[in-house]
Amino acid sequence: MKTNKSRRAGLGLTIMIILTVLILGACSASNTTMSTDTRTRVGIVLTEVGLGDRSFNDAAFDGLVQARDEKSIVFDYREPGENLTAEAAFEEFAEDKFDLIIGLSDTVQADMEKVAAQYPDQQFLMIDSQSELPNIASISFRAEEGSYLAGVIAAMATTENHVGFLGGMEIPVLRDFEQGFEQGVLAVKPDATVDAVYAGDFGNANLGEQLAAQMIQDKGADVIYVAAGLTGVGALTEIQKLGKYAIGVDTDQFFLAEKAILTSMLKNVDVSIYNAVNTFIRNNHTFPQKEIVEGLAENAVGLTALHNITLSDEQQKTFEDLKAKISSGQIKITLDQ
Description:
Layout: H1 4-37, E1 40-45, H2 56-69, E2 73-78, H3 86-95, E3 100-104, H4 109-118, E4 123-127, E5 136-141, H5 143-157, E6 162-167, H6 172-188, E7 193-198, H7 205-218, E8 223-227, H8 229-241, E9 245-250, E10 261-267, H9 269-282, E11 291-294, E12 301-303, H10 313-328
Parallel strand pairs: 1-2, 1-3, 3-4, 4-5, 5-11, 6-7, 6-8, 8-9, 9-10
Antiparallel strand pairs: 10-12
Helix pairs in contact: 2-9, 3-4, 5-6, 5-10, 7-8
């Protein structure tokens, strides 16, 4: 029979074992936390549209999610709105000493530059715009390469040998779109006519309808590449109404005009952000290049799946051949600003 003394000794031993296990568990948790803390910390400030736009913001977010799921980063995000300015969002991340702070589009550039000037040792990354500040790197896109492929598809689809480009405003980036598109068309059909019209407005759907109708009814275009924001939405609607074809931009715009859209030219923001973050990590939290420019070779631009058109074997071979030559640099697109 065990005595009270032996029972107490056994109970004490049990308590010591439990405490040891708890302490070891706490140390393990602490070590896990420390391991997590060694990962690169990234903060991103979205546009005021925020998550759920099925476009620019969602794509950028997805790129960071991919990097996080591969255990290379931890990240947080801010959505500017009534209760939070973009400037305040950037400042929060800077004060918390995030390793990299990302901003989307030139709509937040001024706010980023204000904060970057106050935190000269903090690294920032601007998407789709460029800054002269030394601690703001940038990613921009060779959109002319994706537009070249859009031109190839337009040339293969036209039966009138007459296509068009409808831009929002005549700004350098859209001139790149236009010139890439035209050169892609002429690579397939050297005698084709390519019209270019600029609305002077990104936010007027009615104007887009009017211009699309003029390009079709007055000029004779039967395929139009549309890069004009909300103005472009109106144009796509009118193109479908008139029974002609369109090529969208930035996101897959098939749902806007399902009987008209042939394809859409994408800027793969998710891929570019994912690549940039990994470059930043590999280079000890620096960017080898202040300005990162990506195109087809980096999978940063390209076309969506085709709709309303089936390429022949010969056309498919031509398309793939031209795409490969653009990616490799064998074909150079001439840009005149």
